[in-house]
């Protein structure tokens, strides 16, 4: 099985191509340039590996939560490519991808993942490894750092930019956490690795049904709301 994976949920833009034996990945610091970078990166990767879209088994993308614009870019490009090639799509939660990244880097099996959501808030979720899969122990949510629910038990690995952006988050959950790596981030290669067993199980949706996971009910605020850190 061979798939294409995309992620634009943070300030990084990444694309990956591969399967069970591993992924070849391209990563660039994007800032707000995901829409300009991602498609040329995909085209370059397909060309260098001499791969046609029609030969793939599916397309995966980092579904969120994360950068609103980035999520739309990744989802939209995945939809366009999949529609033209007759492929199905799997969306992978970016916080779950961070848990997998923490497992690969630190052998973590209980991960509290947190991304800076701006607005003085974090996107956060907790995952525990069971066999070959991750089990969601706390669903993705957006919340003030000082109000993040502390997952039950101890030995949680804290991962992600939410911890470096908001020291109050570590103060809140540090008693339940065994270690911290604030540099953990989602990437296309990890998104692809998590999508593989889902494609193998026959999962995936038609391009028209793919959608980002925003978590927030609203995706835009006024300048005045930004100034006071309005909750979305």
Describe this structure in words.
The protein is α/β, with parallel strands linked by helices and 232 residues long. The chain has 2 domains: 2-93 and 186-228, Nucleotidyltransferase, domain 5; 95-181, ATPase, nucleotide binding domain (Nucleotidyltransferase, domain 5, 2-Layer Sandwich). It has helices at 34-48, 68-85, 94-106, 161-165, 167-173, 188-200, 223-228, and strands at 2-7, 12-19, 22-29, 58-64, 89-93, 110-116, 122-130, 133-143, 156-159, 177-181. It has a 5-stranded mixed beta sheet, sandwiched between helices. Strands 8-7-6-9-10 form a 5-stranded mixed beta sheet. Strand 7 (122-130) and strand 8 (133-143) form a beta hairpin. The termini are far apart. The relative contact order is 0.19.
- Superfamily at the CATH H level of the largest domain? ATPase, nucleotide binding domain
CATH architecture of the largest domain: 2-Layer Sandwich
In the predicted model, the low-confidence regions spanning at least 5 consecutive residues are 218-232
**Could you say which overall geometry the principal axes of the C-alpha atoms support?**
globular
End-to-end distance, in Å? 40 Å
